[in-house]
Every structure is written in structure tokens, then in C-alpha cells.
Amino acid sequence: MVSSLPHPTTPAGRDGLAALLARPDKAVVALDFDGTLAEIVPDPEQARAHPGAVAALAALAPEVASVAVVTGRPAGVAVRYGGFAGVPGLEHLVVLGHYGAERWDAISGTVQASAVHPGVASVRAELPGFLDSEGAWPGTWIEEKGRAVAVHTRRSTDPQAAFEALKAPLADLASRHGLVLEPGRMVLELRPPGMDKGVALAEYVREVGAGSVLYAGDDLGDLPAFAAVEKLRSNGTPGLLVCSGSAEVPELTDRADLSVPGPGAVVAFLAALAESIRPDSGGRASRAVPAVGA
Questions:
Q1: pLDDT above 70 as % of the chain
Q2: Which backbone phi and psi does 143 adopt, to 5 degrees?
Q3: Whole-angstrom Cα distance, residue 51 to residue 267?
Q4: 3-state class of 177 per DSSP?
């Protein structure tokens, strides 16, 4: 029996889901990691994929053209924290790490990477003293990301105040070293320009020759990927935008075709999608997308 799929609330989203169900072999399913496949946690090093994520992805991946994880994390870290390596069914999974600057594929089990921007090392050296000069924000801390550096405020005594106070000074620091500042959910990331999930997703969709695309994300850093899907739709490639719901990021929720309440619901959606299109599930005989409210 096919599990019930949630209904997109927009015509474009319903068209995107219908196209995916009609030709899953031409579909790219792309997913953010933190907040989408994994819960947001105070210490990013403790983040792990939702317990059902790997099984859902392994069921879905053989039925579609490609599954890609698109993340700001280093590709190898996302693979470890996701538990993606050596999983039957995920032989063709791709992880686009550091917003596409790194790429891991399950076939080779190796990471391909471009050169690191020199401004990252300069910012990394300057940042501790710079933060001290901006005043005391207890609990604010620096995350080393290899090709980027992030300042987290979630553990601060006043996370939002620290976030707002540091945003403009960190943008200036990034600019001085040829980098850009990317705000997220209580995190401010300094990274090279031209690195974003939209660029990574658009290039990968072109590479695969996708006939439809689904993208799921939860944070401000996913807005470029949403924009990439919207551009693809305007050029005739159907797409579905899924928000792993958060009251912290209304900008994403407002543009999504479908919002679900966090990683557990994303995993349930992926599992239902896999069941809907598996040849032995009965799903191929019932792919019509019900109207909203049906």
C-alpha cells in the first residue's frame, strides 16, 4: 500500500511533484543536510542524520536519476555524519560539499575539490582577536570549516542580539579579505564569493540532464537553491520546493511549495515518495497528485 504523500500548496509545486512521479528516472532529488536530513543541534560536530534518513534515501535513490546532498559542510564530514558510505542502494549518491567546491560520490568513495580561497586563511587568523574587539558575547564561538569560517551565536546568552551586533562588522571583515558573509540560523559564515547552493544545484542538474528537480532545505543558505529551482521552472523544467519547517526562517517558508515540520517529516516524505514510485509497491498505478485539501 502506498503511503500518503503530502500535497504541495502551489500549482508549480503540484506540477513539479506530478512530473517527478510520472518520470522518476529523470528526476534529481537534492537535499540540504543540517536542519533537513539532520536535526539542528547546539554543537554542529554532534549532528547526525535522522535515524530513518539513510533507509529512506536508499529506497528512493534507485528509482530516480540522482540523489544529491547539497551542504555547506565539507563533503567528507557530511558523508560521515550522514552515514552514507557503503550503503546498498546509495551507490550513485553524490554529496556536493562546501556549496559545490567539494564533491564526493559513492562510486569512487573519494572527494574532488577545488583550491581554497586565500582569504579564508587570513580571516581564520584574524577572527579571534576581531571578535574580542567587538565586545563580550559569552557563548559565541568559531567553527572551522576548511573552505569557510563560521561564527555561531546560538549558545550566547542573547543569541539574536549577538547575531545582529556581529553581522555588519563580520560583513566588513569578509569584504576586506575578498569573502562574503552568509547569515543563517544563529550563524554567520564567511566564505568565498560564487559559492552557494544555487550555483551547485544548477550545475548538477545540467550535468544530469534532469527532467524535474526536488529541493529541500531549511535555512537562509538554501534560498539560492530555491531561486535556482524557480529559474529552472521558468525555463520549462518542473520543480518542487520543500521547506523543512522553521519559524526562524519565514523567507524560506514563504517561497516553499510544501512545508513539513523538520527532518523527521522530511524523511517520512522521502520514504512515501519512494514507495509511490517503486515498481513493486503499486505506486506506479496511482501517481495522480490529489488536489489540495482532498
A1: 93
A2: -110, 125
A3: 9
A4: coil
Q: Where are the beta strands (DSSP E) in 117-238?
A: 141-144, 149-152, 180-183, 187-191, 212-217
Indicate the pairing of strand 102-105 with strand 110-113. antiparallel
* Segments of 57-211 assigned E as strands: 66-70, 94-97, 102-105, 110-113, 141-144, 149-152, 180-183, 187-191
In angstroms, the CA 233 to CA 80 distance is 33
Rounded to an integer, what distance in angstroms lies between the CA atom of residue 96 and that of residue 87? 18
Q: Where are the beta strands (DSSP E) in 83-192?
A: 94-97, 102-105, 110-113, 141-144, 149-152, 180-183, 187-191
The CA-based dihedral angle spanning residues 231, 237, 240, 241, taken in that order and rounded to the nearest 10 degrees: -20
Strand partners, 239: 213
254 SS3 class: coil
pLDDT, one tens digit per residue, over 97-146 is 999 999 999 999 999 998 888 999 999 999 988 888 776 678 888 998 88
Output 275-281 pairs: Cβ under 8 A, ≥24 positions apart: 275/2, 275/3, 275/59, 276/2, 276/3, 276/5, 276/21, 277/21, 277/24, 277/63, 277/64, 278/59, 278/63, 281/2
Q: From CA 79, how far away is CA 97, in angstroms rounded?
A: 9
